[in-house]
Amino acid sequence: MPKMKTHKGTAKRIKITSTGKLTRRRAFGSHMLAKKSKSRKRNIKSNATVTGAMAKNVKRALGI
Q1: What is the pLDDT of residues 21-57, one digit of tens each?
Q2: Which residues, 6 or more positions from 51, have their beta carbon under 8 angstroms from its beta carbon?
């Protein structure tokens, strides 16, 4: 079998922490911010961790 290629779209969006966890940016933080509350915008700013079955699929796409 040949080597698996890294899915470049996934690699650009998801980063691996030093402990091996996967982090991603949250959606809805780029435009139309006037109608969103301060707390909602603050939560959007923070990174989210990828867990569960999605993490398994992402790791496969990244070749981890």
Answers
A1: 999 999 999 999 999 999 999 999 999 999 999 999 9
A2: none
Give the Cα separation of 32 and 35 in Å (integer). 6
Dihedral sign (CA 6, 12, 14, 18): positive
Count Cβ atoms within 10 A of the Cβ of residue 26 and give its class: 0-12 exposed, 13-18 middle, 19 or more buried: exposed
Could you tell me the pTM of the whole model? Answer: 0.79
Contact 50, 14 (CB under 8 A): yes
Q: Are 48 and 17 in contact (CB under 8 A)?
A: no
Cα separation, 30 vs 63, whole angstroms: 29
Q: Which two tokens stand for residue 42?
A: 């603050």
For 44, counting Cβ atoms within 10 Å of its Cβ (0-12 exposed, 13-18 middle, 19+ buried), the class is middle
